[in-house]
Design goal:
Largest sheet: 8 strands, mixed
Bound molecules: ligand BES, zinc ion
Strand content: 15-25%
Number of helices: 19
Shape: globular
Low-confidence stretches: 1-24
Number of strands: 22
């Protein structure tokens, strides 16, 4: 697989891309199923200004130039708008955009109004046009620029990249950030096809969550290149994604591969080769992969998430490159979203468990298929531990699967409830109806609802029509309790991982005063190490400390935690260290917080520091002042709320 690596920039690109039919008419994606074209009932989404029943965007055509000095994207978004007979306006979502003008296809100006700003939703952009004919389409051309502080975009200096020579930029749309770089109807129920022409400095490569139509780029004036893309499957706008940087590509097989900076390509390739087998396993489980290629883009360390399921091109944090493939469940997760999320999409952010809960379940099935039941159970058990810990601190209303996020930032729904309680619900159904029947239903659910918005209520309708057809089964499953009641229903059975029994015993022995040398650390997998470090005594000691400084020093040196390279293990250790005010770990903490910006790691550590008042707050303030400039707006937005803006 590595034979093209020496020539990646030019040759592997050509091999991987040019190998497929990239003619103007040929798409490598299978045709849309009937469900894609059946009429949609738009659900009420309180996080958009759009009124899709009046007029909705069907297609977005971007023509944008990336300015790495001004930190802007500017150009046009040409929207195909359809709507009801006689409609004379369309309402779009924008946030922090500079709108220069709006015109029709002939260039004639159209009247537009930018409404008042809502701190969460941004502004409505209402465009007026002549009354729509029956089935008619109106083209509107919005000329605009993004602002340097667009929340979806991060502009990196060369120093923030692995190569250190060239700048980089990338977008992150979910949940409602696409409106900070594309003026469109930014609601997950309003699916749109898109194409794009992106102009960037000629020494950089642009990639998108779409088919590459110009694998080598095209000359576009002095020192510039243009890259063209096309997404022929209608997608929710949060899945429109762009990355530009010094990128190279290495294939895993004919339909999968990885993009990243050249100096990181071999490591990324070797770490993530199992991607190809994962796609095969996922198809075996729940039906054809509908997006053509499945590639990964491994981003610089400031990427604020673990992964983002952008179609055809999952964006991923480099913190999964652990050297031993131990964190590849993240790829299984993002890949699973190609069905749960990208095909069948939560209609509103209140239904986010339909995306994330289904995906965590599906991810676990992929992991089981590739690595066996023991590994899958360990992952389930770690998830259950995370959920328990998180639920303890949530208001009961936020522990329901179906949320009400009206007036709140949809990010507030981003808890383990959507992920782990959602997955637990599906594991419960599977246990009760049996895997075989469950799999038939789930495969059918993806087929019946492909390319359609899904609400919790439509999910219930689907499962009651196709799987849960008897009163007895209905009573056993307790579906309404799972969805609409807080906490875990009485038919919940926590996953039991036998592999964790000795780990818990070792944790107990250590907590009771045993030496760290008795811990069989080197024989343990990453998951066992995570379990060990996440373990807490059932009854917290009055002091709030369950280990002494001497014990922590023993742990730190015996397990070589100062030089731990696995981000998950290091994070779990640093949480213990901070919660114990363990000063010797502060340099390790400083290094971790200033060399990656994944919110899942950064936010809890700053929160833990803040909770350690006179000890932790000065450290938090100092480290945040140092680290903040390197973080993505998604991460700073969250950490600012804890530590304050330096
Ligand atoms: N779709 C999410 C990321 C997301 C959710 C971004 C909501 C913005 C709003 C992605 O699939 C995800 O869940 N990523 C996780 C990793 C996963 C293995 C649980 C992450 O980033 O940590
Ligand atoms: Zn996810």
């Amino acid at each position: 697989m590595l034979r093209t690596l020496g020539l990646v920039s030019a040759l592997a690109l050509a091999t991987a891309m040019g190998g497929c039919a990239m003619t103007a008419s040929g798409s490598d994606m299978p045709p849309l199923p009937a469900s894609a074209t059946a009429p949609v009932v738009y659900p009420l989404d309180t996080h958009t200004w759009a009124q899709p029943d009046v007029a909705h965007v069907r297609h977005v055509a971007l023509d944008l130039t990336a300015d790495f000095t001004a930190h802007t994207l500017s150009g046009t978004a040409t929207l195909d708008v359809q709507g009801r007979l006689g409609a004379t306006e369309v309402v779009l979502d924008i946030k922090n955009l500079d709108i220069r003008g709006v015109a029709d296809a002939s260039g004639a100006p159209l009247r537009f109004v930018v409404g008042d700003n809502d701190a969460i939703k941004g502004q409505p952009l209402t465009v007026h046009f002549p009354a729509l004919a029956a089935g008619g389409t109106q083209k509107i051309v919005v000329s605009y620029s993004t602002r340097p502080d667009a929340a979806a975009l991060q502009w990196l200096t060369p120093a923030q990249t692995a190569g250190g020579q060239k700048p980089y930029m990338f977008s992150q749309g979910q949940a409602i950030l696409t409106r900070t770089w594309v003026p469109t109807q930014d609601s997950p129920g309003i699916r749109q096809t898109y194409d794009a022409r992106i102009v960037a400095p000629a020494d950089l490569v642009a990639v998108m969550s779409a088919e590459h139509l110009t694998p080598q780029g095209e000359a576009a004036g002095s020192g510039l290149k243009a890259w063209r893309f096309r997404m022929t499957n209608p997608v929710p706008p949060y899945l429109i994604a762009l990355g530009i940087g010094d990128l190279a590509f290495a294939p895993f097989d004919e339909r999968t591969g990885v993009w990243t900076e050249p100096s990181r390509l071999r490591a990324a390739h070797d770490e993530l080769v199992s991607t190809a087998a994962m796609v095969d396993a996922a198809e075996q489980l729940y039906g054809p992969y509908r997006w053509g290629r499945y590639d990964l883009l491994v981003l610089p360390p400031s990427f604020p998430f673990g992964g983002m399921e952008n179609p055809r091109l999952t964006f991923a944090t480099p913190t999964i490159i652990a050297g031993d493939q131990s964190l590849v469940s993240l790829v299984a997760h993002e890949l699973a979203h190609s069905w749960s999320g990208n095909l069948v999409t939560n209609a509103t952010w209140n239904d986010m468990w339909l995306n994330e809960g289904f995906t965590v379940y599906f991810e676990n099935r992929i992991m089981e298929a590739l690595y066996g039941k023991d590994r899958a159970l360990m992952l389930q058990s770690l998830g259950w531990g995370d959920l328990q810990a998180e639920m303890a601190g949530l208001p009961p209303a936020d522990t329901r699967l179906k949320l009400d996020l009206t007036g709140r930032d949809p990010d507030e729904g981003l808890t383990d409830v959507a992920y782990e309680k959602g997955a637990s619900f599906l594991h419960t159904i599977e246990r009760i109806v049996g895997r075989e029947r469950f799999d038939v239903w789930l495969k059918g659910y993806f087929e019946r609802n492909a390319f359609r918005p899904m609400t919790t209520e439509l999910f219930l309708e689907d499962i009651r029509t196709h799987l849960v057809t008897t009163r007895a089964l209905e009573d056993q499953l307790m579906m309404d309790a799972w969805i609409y009641q807080p906490g875990m229903p009485s038919n919940w059975q926590p996953p039991v991982s036998n592999a964790f029994v000795p780990v818990d015993a070792a944790a107990l022995a250590f907590a009771a005063g045993g030496p760290a040398s008795a811990i069989p650390w080197t024989r343990w997998s990453t998951q066992e190490r995570q379990r060990f470090l996440a373990w807490r005594p059932p009854v917290p000691p009055a002091s709030g400390r369950w280990f002494s400084d001497t014990q922590l020093a023993d742990l730190e040196s015996t397990l070589h935690l100062k030089t731990e390279g696995n981000a998950e293990v290091l994070f779990a250790w640093l949480q213990i260290a901070v919660q114990h005010r363990y000063q010797p770990a502060v340099p390790t903490l400083e290094h971790f917080l200033t060399t990656q910006g994944r919110r899942k790691f950064v936010l809890p550590l700053f929160t833990s520091l803040w909770d350690q008042h006179e000890w932790g707050r000065p450290i938090a303030t100092r480290l945040y002042a140092e680290a903040r400039a390197g973080y993505h707006p998604v991460t700073t937005g969250s950490v600012d709320a804890v530590v304050g803006r330096p």
